[in-house]
Amino acid sequence: GWGSQSSKVHIHHSTWLHFPGHNLRWILTFILLFVLVCEIAEGIVSDGVSESRHLHLYMPAGMAFLAAITSVVYYHNIETSNFPKLLIALLFYWTLAFITKTIKFVKFCDNGVGFSQLRFCLTGLLVVLYGMLLAVEINVIRVRRYVFFKTPKEVKPPEDLQDLGVRFLQPFVNLLSKGTYWWMNTFIKTAHKKPIDLKTIGKLPIAMRALTNYILLNEAFEAQKNKRSSSPQGSRSIWRALCCAFGRPLLLSSTFRILADLLGFAGPLCISGIVHNVGKGNNTIRPQTKILGVFFISSQEFLSNAYVLAVLLFFALLLQRTFLQASYYVAIETGINLRGAI
Fold this sequence. Notes:
It comes from Toxostoma redivivum. Keywords: ATP-binding, Glycoprotein, Membrane, Nucleotide-binding, Repeat, Transmembrane, Transmembrane helix. The chain crosses the membrane at residues 26-45, 57-76, 82-99, 120-141, 291-319. InterPro entries: ABC1_TM_sf (IPR036640), ABC_transporter_C-like (IPR050173), ABCC8/9 (IPR000388). Belongs to the ABC transporter superfamily. ABCC family. Conjugate transporter (TC 3.A.1.208) subfamily. By secondary structure, the protein is mostly helical. It folds into 2 domains: 1-165, no CATH class; 204-341, no CATH class. Helices cover 65% and strands 2% of the residues. The chain has 13 helices and 2 strands, in the order H-H-H-H-H-H-H-H-H-H-H-E-E-H-H. The chain has helices at residues 22-48, 59-81, 88-110, 118-144, 159-162, 175-180, 185-193, 198-201, 210-225, 235-263, 266-280, 299-303, 306-341, and strands spanning 289-291, 294-296. Strands 1-2 form a two-stranded antiparallel ribbon. Strand 1 and strand 2 (294-296) form a beta hairpin. Helix 9 crosses helix 13 (306-341) and helix 10 (235-263) runs antiparallel to helix 13. The radius of gyration is 25 Å and the shape is globular.
Protein backbone atom coordinates (compact mmCIF):
# COMPACT_ATOMS: atom_id res chain seq x y z
CA GLY A 1 0.00 0.00 0.00
CA TRP A 2 1.28 3.40 -1.05
CA GLY A 3 1.85 5.27 2.21
CA SER A 4 -0.53 2.98 4.08
CA GLN A 5 -1.12 3.73 7.75
CA SER A 6 -2.94 0.45 8.43
CA SER A 7 0.37 -1.49 8.43
CA LYS A 8 1.34 0.37 11.62
CA VAL A 9 -1.74 -0.78 13.54
CA HIS A 10 -2.62 -4.40 14.19
CA ILE A 11 -6.32 -5.07 14.73
CA HIS A 12 -8.49 -8.07 13.99
CA HIS A 13 -11.25 -6.19 12.14
CA SER A 14 -11.12 -5.17 8.48
CA THR A 15 -13.53 -2.22 8.79
CA TRP A 16 -12.63 0.38 11.34
CA LEU A 17 -11.89 3.74 9.80
CA HIS A 18 -14.35 6.28 8.45
CA PHE A 19 -12.94 9.16 6.45
CA PRO A 20 -14.44 12.63 7.04
CA GLY A 21 -17.86 12.95 5.41
CA HIS A 22 -18.38 9.18 5.26
CA ASN A 23 -22.17 9.17 5.67
CA LEU A 24 -22.63 12.26 3.49
CA ARG A 25 -20.64 10.61 0.68
CA TRP A 26 -22.81 7.49 0.76
CA ILE A 27 -26.04 9.50 0.82
CA LEU A 28 -24.89 11.66 -2.09
CA THR A 29 -23.85 8.54 -4.03
CA PHE A 30 -27.28 6.94 -3.50
CA ILE A 31 -28.98 10.13 -4.72
CA LEU A 32 -26.57 10.28 -7.67
CA LEU A 33 -27.42 6.71 -8.68
CA PHE A 34 -31.14 7.47 -8.51
CA VAL A 35 -30.79 10.63 -10.62
CA LEU A 36 -28.68 8.73 -13.17
CA VAL A 37 -31.38 6.04 -13.38
CA CYS A 38 -33.92 8.81 -14.04
CA GLU A 39 -31.62 10.25 -16.72
CA ILE A 40 -31.29 6.85 -18.40
CA ALA A 41 -35.08 6.39 -18.31
CA GLU A 42 -35.65 9.92 -19.63
CA GLY A 43 -33.28 9.29 -22.53
CA ILE A 44 -34.93 5.98 -23.42
CA VAL A 45 -38.45 7.43 -23.23
CA SER A 46 -37.62 10.52 -25.29
CA ASP A 47 -35.63 8.45 -27.79
CA GLY A 48 -38.56 6.07 -28.21
CA VAL A 49 -40.63 8.74 -29.94
CA SER A 50 -37.85 9.66 -32.40
CA GLU A 51 -37.68 8.29 -35.91
CA SER A 52 -33.94 7.58 -35.56
CA ARG A 53 -31.94 6.29 -32.60
CA HIS A 54 -29.90 8.70 -30.46
CA LEU A 55 -27.63 6.66 -28.20
CA HIS A 56 -26.13 9.80 -26.70
CA LEU A 57 -29.38 10.39 -24.81
CA TYR A 58 -28.86 7.46 -22.43
CA MET A 59 -25.51 5.76 -23.07
CA PRO A 60 -23.42 8.40 -21.22
CA ALA A 61 -25.81 8.19 -18.26
CA GLY A 62 -25.42 4.41 -18.25
CA MET A 63 -21.63 4.73 -18.18
CA ALA A 64 -21.89 7.33 -15.40
CA PHE A 65 -24.09 4.92 -13.43
CA LEU A 66 -21.43 2.19 -13.67
CA ALA A 67 -18.73 4.73 -12.78
CA ALA A 68 -20.67 5.84 -9.67
CA ILE A 69 -20.97 2.22 -8.48
CA THR A 70 -17.26 1.68 -9.17
CA SER A 71 -16.38 4.84 -7.24
CA VAL A 72 -18.22 3.80 -4.08
CA VAL A 73 -16.76 0.26 -4.18
CA TYR A 74 -13.32 1.78 -4.74
CA TYR A 75 -13.85 4.18 -1.82
CA HIS A 76 -15.01 1.39 0.49
CA ASN A 77 -11.87 -0.67 -0.16
CA ILE A 78 -9.63 2.36 0.36
CA GLU A 79 -11.40 3.17 3.61
CA THR A 80 -11.19 -0.35 5.03
CA SER A 81 -7.52 -0.59 4.05
CA ASN A 82 -6.73 2.99 5.16
CA PHE A 83 -4.98 4.02 1.91
CA PRO A 84 -6.05 7.69 1.80
CA LYS A 85 -3.52 8.62 -0.89
CA LEU A 86 -5.41 6.49 -3.40
CA LEU A 87 -8.41 8.82 -3.03
CA ILE A 88 -6.60 11.23 -5.36
CA ALA A 89 -8.08 9.23 -8.28
CA LEU A 90 -11.60 10.05 -7.07
CA LEU A 91 -10.64 13.71 -6.73
CA PHE A 92 -9.75 13.82 -10.44
CA TYR A 93 -12.90 11.92 -11.41
CA TRP A 94 -15.29 14.21 -9.51
CA THR A 95 -13.51 17.24 -10.96
CA LEU A 96 -13.87 16.01 -14.55
CA ALA A 97 -17.47 14.93 -14.02
CA PHE A 98 -18.36 18.31 -12.51
CA ILE A 99 -16.71 20.23 -15.38
CA THR A 100 -18.30 18.17 -18.17
CA LYS A 101 -21.80 18.32 -16.65
CA THR A 102 -21.42 22.06 -16.12
CA ILE A 103 -20.51 22.50 -19.79
CA LYS A 104 -23.59 20.49 -20.79
CA PHE A 105 -25.79 22.55 -18.46
CA VAL A 106 -24.46 25.83 -19.87
CA LYS A 107 -25.07 24.57 -23.43
CA PHE A 108 -28.68 23.82 -22.54
CA CYS A 109 -29.08 27.35 -21.17
CA ASP A 110 -27.60 28.86 -24.35
CA ASN A 111 -30.07 26.92 -26.52
CA GLY A 112 -33.16 27.96 -24.61
CA VAL A 113 -33.72 24.73 -22.68
CA GLY A 114 -35.44 25.54 -19.38
CA PHE A 115 -37.00 24.07 -16.25
CA SER A 116 -40.01 22.83 -18.20
CA GLN A 117 -37.78 20.13 -19.74
CA LEU A 118 -36.86 17.23 -17.44
CA ARG A 119 -33.40 16.76 -19.00
CA PHE A 120 -32.45 20.29 -17.99
CA CYS A 121 -33.47 19.67 -14.36
CA LEU A 122 -31.63 16.33 -14.19
CA THR A 123 -28.47 17.90 -15.60
CA GLY A 124 -28.67 20.70 -13.02
CA LEU A 125 -29.07 18.14 -10.22
CA LEU A 126 -26.05 16.21 -11.48
CA VAL A 127 -23.95 19.39 -11.47
CA VAL A 128 -24.91 19.99 -7.83
CA LEU A 129 -24.26 16.36 -6.81
CA TYR A 130 -20.86 16.17 -8.53
CA GLY A 131 -19.94 19.51 -6.97
CA MET A 132 -20.88 18.29 -3.49
CA LEU A 133 -18.95 15.03 -3.94
CA LEU A 134 -15.95 17.08 -5.07
CA ALA A 135 -16.31 19.22 -1.93
CA VAL A 136 -16.41 16.07 0.24
CA GLU A 137 -13.20 14.84 -1.42
CA ILE A 138 -11.47 18.18 -0.84
CA ASN A 139 -12.58 18.09 2.80
CA VAL A 140 -10.93 14.67 3.25
CA ILE A 141 -7.67 16.16 1.97
CA ARG A 142 -8.04 19.14 4.30
CA VAL A 143 -8.71 17.02 7.40
CA ARG A 144 -6.49 14.01 6.78
CA ARG A 145 -3.72 16.04 5.05
CA TYR A 146 -2.69 12.97 3.02
CA VAL A 147 -1.50 14.98 -0.02
CA PHE A 148 -0.25 18.54 -0.53
CA PHE A 149 0.80 18.64 3.16
CA LYS A 150 4.17 17.81 4.67
CA THR A 151 2.80 16.08 7.75
CA PRO A 152 -0.26 13.83 7.22
CA LYS A 153 -2.63 13.39 10.13
CA GLU A 154 -2.21 10.07 11.92
CA VAL A 155 -5.33 8.32 13.13
CA LYS A 156 -5.82 5.53 15.61
CA PRO A 157 -8.46 2.80 15.46
CA PRO A 158 -11.37 3.08 17.91
CA GLU A 159 -10.76 1.50 21.29
CA ASP A 160 -13.61 -0.95 20.76
CA LEU A 161 -11.88 -2.54 17.77
CA GLN A 162 -8.65 -2.99 19.69
CA ASP A 163 -10.59 -5.15 22.14
CA LEU A 164 -10.87 -8.71 20.84
CA GLY A 165 -14.00 -9.23 22.92
CA VAL A 166 -16.11 -6.64 21.07
CA ARG A 167 -17.93 -8.10 18.06
CA PHE A 168 -20.68 -5.49 17.72
CA LEU A 169 -19.45 -3.77 14.55
CA GLN A 170 -22.52 -1.68 13.69
CA PRO A 171 -20.92 1.71 14.53
CA PHE A 172 -17.88 0.95 12.35
CA VAL A 173 -19.34 -0.42 9.10
CA ASN A 174 -20.38 1.67 6.10
CA LEU A 175 -23.82 3.19 5.68
CA LEU A 176 -25.05 0.54 3.23
CA SER A 177 -24.11 -2.27 5.62
CA LYS A 178 -25.92 -0.47 8.44
CA GLY A 179 -29.06 0.01 6.36
CA THR A 180 -29.19 -3.63 5.23
CA TYR A 181 -27.78 -5.21 8.44
CA TRP A 182 -25.16 -6.91 6.27
CA TRP A 183 -22.69 -6.77 9.17
CA MET A 184 -24.88 -9.30 11.03
CA ASN A 185 -24.28 -12.09 8.48
CA THR A 186 -21.23 -13.52 10.23
CA PHE A 187 -23.06 -13.71 13.54
CA ILE A 188 -26.16 -15.26 11.93
CA LYS A 189 -24.05 -17.96 10.22
CA THR A 190 -22.36 -18.77 13.51
CA ALA A 191 -25.72 -19.00 15.31
CA HIS A 192 -27.06 -21.26 12.54
CA LYS A 193 -24.19 -23.75 12.94
CA LYS A 194 -24.22 -24.03 16.75
CA PRO A 195 -26.00 -22.59 19.78
CA ILE A 196 -24.66 -19.19 20.78
CA ASP A 197 -23.51 -18.07 24.22
CA LEU A 198 -22.35 -14.82 25.82
CA LYS A 199 -18.78 -15.44 24.69
CA THR A 200 -19.92 -15.68 21.07
CA ILE A 201 -21.94 -12.48 21.36
CA GLY A 202 -19.00 -10.62 22.84
CA LYS A 203 -18.87 -7.47 24.95
CA LEU A 204 -20.89 -4.33 24.42
CA PRO A 205 -19.16 -1.37 22.77
CA ILE A 206 -18.12 1.41 25.13
CA ALA A 207 -20.86 3.73 23.89
CA MET A 208 -23.60 1.21 24.79
CA ARG A 209 -22.37 0.25 28.26
CA ALA A 210 -24.45 1.26 31.28
CA LEU A 211 -21.58 3.18 32.90
CA THR A 212 -21.03 5.31 29.79
CA ASN A 213 -24.71 6.20 29.51
CA TYR A 214 -24.97 6.80 33.27
CA ILE A 215 -22.16 9.37 33.06
CA LEU A 216 -23.87 11.00 30.09
CA LEU A 217 -27.23 11.22 31.87
CA ASN A 218 -25.67 12.30 35.17
CA GLU A 219 -23.82 15.17 33.49
CA ALA A 220 -27.05 16.36 31.88
CA PHE A 221 -28.90 16.08 35.23
CA GLU A 222 -26.20 17.97 37.12
CA ALA A 223 -26.32 20.70 34.47
CA GLN A 224 -30.04 21.07 35.18
CA LYS A 225 -29.42 21.30 38.94
CA ASN A 226 -26.72 23.92 38.54
CA LYS A 227 -28.99 26.29 36.65
CA ARG A 228 -30.67 29.24 38.33
CA SER A 229 -33.79 28.87 40.46
CA SER A 230 -35.93 29.73 37.42
CA SER A 231 -35.20 26.27 36.07
CA PRO A 232 -37.85 23.71 37.14
CA GLN A 233 -36.72 21.01 39.56
CA GLY A 234 -38.05 17.54 40.33
CA SER A 235 -39.53 15.35 37.62
CA ARG A 236 -39.43 18.12 34.99
CA SER A 237 -35.71 18.50 35.55
CA ILE A 238 -35.25 14.75 35.04
CA TRP A 239 -37.24 14.87 31.81
CA ARG A 240 -35.07 17.73 30.55
CA ALA A 241 -31.94 15.77 31.42
CA LEU A 242 -33.25 12.74 29.52
CA CYS A 243 -34.04 14.90 26.48
CA CYS A 244 -30.60 16.52 26.64
CA ALA A 245 -28.75 13.19 26.93
CA PHE A 246 -30.82 11.04 24.54
CA GLY A 247 -32.88 13.51 22.53
CA ARG A 248 -30.71 13.48 19.41
CA PRO A 249 -31.06 9.74 18.56
CA LEU A 250 -34.79 9.88 19.33
CA LEU A 251 -35.12 12.85 16.97
CA LEU A 252 -33.24 10.84 14.33
CA SER A 253 -35.60 7.90 14.84
CA SER A 254 -38.61 10.20 14.49
CA THR A 255 -37.17 11.66 11.29
CA PHE A 256 -36.74 8.19 9.80
CA ARG A 257 -40.33 7.32 10.74
CA ILE A 258 -41.70 10.53 9.16
CA LEU A 259 -39.79 9.82 5.94
CA ALA A 260 -41.14 6.26 5.90
CA ASP A 261 -44.70 7.50 6.38
CA LEU A 262 -44.31 10.10 3.62
CA LEU A 263 -42.98 7.45 1.24
CA GLY A 264 -46.06 5.41 2.06
CA PHE A 265 -48.09 7.87 -0.04
CA ALA A 266 -45.95 7.08 -3.10
CA GLY A 267 -47.38 3.57 -3.45
CA PRO A 268 -51.04 4.51 -3.94
CA LEU A 269 -50.09 7.46 -6.16
CA CYS A 270 -47.93 5.30 -8.45
CA ILE A 271 -50.54 2.54 -8.63
CA SER A 272 -53.23 5.10 -9.42
CA GLY A 273 -51.07 6.51 -12.24
CA ILE A 274 -50.36 3.05 -13.64
CA VAL A 275 -54.05 2.08 -13.61
CA HIS A 276 -54.99 5.41 -15.22
CA ASN A 277 -52.42 5.01 -18.02
CA VAL A 278 -53.29 1.37 -18.66
CA GLY A 279 -56.96 2.29 -18.71
CA LYS A 280 -56.36 4.83 -21.47
CA GLY A 281 -54.94 2.04 -23.63
CA ASN A 282 -52.35 4.30 -25.23
CA ASN A 283 -49.10 4.84 -23.38
CA THR A 284 -47.31 6.63 -26.20
CA ILE A 285 -45.83 10.00 -25.31
CA ARG A 286 -46.12 12.76 -27.89
CA PRO A 287 -43.65 15.47 -26.83
CA GLN A 288 -43.94 18.84 -28.53
CA THR A 289 -40.48 20.28 -27.75
CA LYS A 290 -37.63 19.48 -30.14
CA ILE A 291 -34.26 21.17 -29.60
CA LEU A 292 -30.85 20.34 -31.10
CA GLY A 293 -32.50 17.67 -33.25
CA VAL A 294 -33.90 15.57 -30.38
CA PHE A 295 -37.11 15.60 -28.35
CA PHE A 296 -37.18 16.99 -24.81
CA ILE A 297 -39.94 15.71 -22.53
CA SER A 298 -41.39 17.40 -19.45
CA SER A 299 -41.71 15.89 -15.98
CA GLN A 300 -45.45 15.38 -16.51
CA GLU A 301 -44.87 13.49 -19.76
CA PHE A 302 -42.16 11.40 -18.08
CA LEU A 303 -44.44 10.43 -15.19
CA SER A 304 -47.24 9.47 -17.57
CA ASN A 305 -45.26 6.36 -18.55
CA ALA A 306 -46.46 3.24 -16.72
CA TYR A 307 -43.01 1.60 -16.76
CA VAL A 308 -41.47 4.67 -15.13
CA LEU A 309 -44.14 4.64 -12.43
CA ALA A 310 -43.50 0.94 -11.79
CA VAL A 311 -39.78 1.58 -11.21
CA LEU A 312 -40.56 4.54 -8.96
CA LEU A 313 -42.98 2.35 -7.00
CA PHE A 314 -40.22 -0.21 -6.43
CA PHE A 315 -37.75 2.41 -5.18
CA ALA A 316 -40.38 4.03 -2.95
CA LEU A 317 -41.28 0.75 -1.25
CA LEU A 318 -37.61 -0.16 -0.83
CA LEU A 319 -36.81 3.19 0.80
CA GLN A 320 -39.93 3.06 2.94
CA ARG A 321 -38.98 -0.27 4.51
CA THR A 322 -35.36 0.84 4.94
CA PHE A 323 -36.34 4.02 6.80
CA LEU A 324 -38.92 2.15 8.87
CA GLN A 325 -36.42 -0.48 10.03
CA ALA A 326 -33.83 2.23 10.74
CA SER A 327 -36.41 4.02 12.89
CA TYR A 328 -37.12 0.86 14.89
CA TYR A 329 -33.43 0.10 15.33
CA VAL A 330 -32.43 3.57 16.58
CA ALA A 331 -35.44 3.75 18.93
CA ILE A 332 -34.77 0.32 20.47
CA GLU A 333 -31.03 0.97 20.85
CA THR A 334 -31.70 4.34 22.49
CA GLY A 335 -34.25 2.75 24.84
CA ILE A 336 -31.67 0.16 25.94
CA ASN A 337 -29.07 2.88 26.58
CA LEU A 338 -31.57 5.06 28.47
CA ARG A 339 -32.73 2.17 30.64
CA GLY A 340 -29.13 1.25 31.45
CA ALA A 341 -28.36 4.87 32.39
CA ILE A 342 -31.33 5.08 34.77
